[in-house]
Amino acid sequence: MAPVSDNSVSVFRSIDWWTIAIYLLLLAAGWVSVVGASYSYDQPDILDFAARSGKQLTWIGCSFVLALVLLLTDERIFDSLTPLLYVAFMLLLLATPFVATNIKGSYSWISLGPVSLQPAEFAKCATALMLARYMGSYSFNLQNRRDFLTAVGIVALPVLLIFMQHETGSALVYLALALVFYREGMSGTILFVVLAAIVYFVVGLKFSVTNMPGTATPVGTFFVLVLIWAFTLLLLRLYDKSLRRSSLKFQILNFRFHISSLNGLLIIGLAVIIIGYITQTMVNAERSMVNGQWSIFNFQFLTFLLIALCVGTAVYLFVRSMRQRSTKLLLIGIFAVGSLAVFFTADYTLNHVLAPHQQQRVKVLLGLEEDLTGAGYNVHQSEIAIGSGGFAGKGFLNGTQTKLKYVPEQDTDFIFCTVGEEHGFVGSTVVLLLFLALILRLIHVAERQTIRMARIYGYCVISIFLFHVL
Q1: d(CA 293, CA 73)
Q2: To which H or E segment does residue 468 belong?
Q3: Does residue 218 share a domain with residue 157?
Q4: How far is residue 379 from each of residues 65, 207, 386, 416, measured CA to CA in Å?
Q5: Do 44 and 166 fall within a single domain?
Q6: How far apart are CA 302 and CA 226, in angstroms?
Q7: Per-residue pLDDT tens over the stretch 430-455
Q8: What's the chain's average pLDDT?
Q9: Nearest-CA neighbor of 210 among 201, 199, 218?
Q10: Overall pTM surpassing 0.90 (yes/no)
Q11: To the nearest 10°, the Cα dihedral for 197, 201, 202, 208?
Q12: Are 255 and 272 in contact (CB under 8 A)?
């Protein structure tokens, strides 16, 4: 939609037709892909409403009718009905695990005769509307702790309810709404902290098997601890000027040096890393020649030094924050300690917090296990299907991997396999470019809104689209 205004203009004149055009192209591409993925030579009628392609046409027609109804609805109705919709869908999410059937370990689908519905998908709209309504109110201030926590709670509630359904994928989509908070003025530091935690988890686990050359320290442990220390210094440089202004004075022989405290921390850290690595590799090399000789370097000495470096930096920041009464230094110190806690609990989280099927998926995704007949089968077959399409693809309805049903869920979760196999690199690129164009156009439309609620809701839609595309 074009900018919302108080002037009584025709609803059809206010439509952004470029967005509609891109949407229709993606809709057509999606239906063609569903036809290609579900086509059966035993049932060649693609317009048969009992087939997947026919059902898709039915839902497309319903979406057109619903879109027309929404366009003709007074915007004030959305504002008044949003709390009711939100509460209704939260109650539905709460009830879903008790009435849904078990589908591959997930209790997220409700069967209504021939139709199955997933409330988590509809709850996205209700959550986005509620978030937009609350953040769009005149009294809302993102810098106010109560307002911020309430907005976070609006998003967190459906996430927790969906986790109860053992549907991790749908729950993670809601986390994309963090981009809405960022657009409305949330500090980028919060996003940085979240991304840092993800990096610690992924890097630490993925490279936990291989050790650093000549040491007993895993590659993942080494790089994560170095990242924690480096990220701490980065935050210091960005948010605290006192360490850059204060100086350390020391003398070597007849030479006197004056460096900032921040640069001093950097030099000390680099020295600890380099000297620690060289020392352990040299001692380990010597031990390999003299077997049985006990040494303090028999354990992960480099790991110990890196932990000491991070903890020492945090302690230094805590002490300095008390002396200067600096909240920024205190928070950065907490970030360093919290980062260590996140990293060292990653393995426990993977093996004791996540469900067995979730553990298996994470391990296969990170390459810790190769299960081509189990959890990794879907991804492996989808890669084969996409790769077999080559540059221009095999042609419409000519995909062998999809026609022979090698790819599970090929007309739903793995629909992009059909695009890659039948239309190749060219078709895949066109689809991704259309999604990019749609997201950019939605950003353009959202920024033109004169009503804050409309802009925020637009960014909610953008965030969800972006998550799915990525």
Answers
A1: 82
A2: helix 452-469
A3: no
A4: 36, 21, 11, 12
A5: yes
A6: 11
A7: 999 999 999 999 999 999 988 899 99
A8: 81
A9: 218
A10: no
A11: 140
A12: no
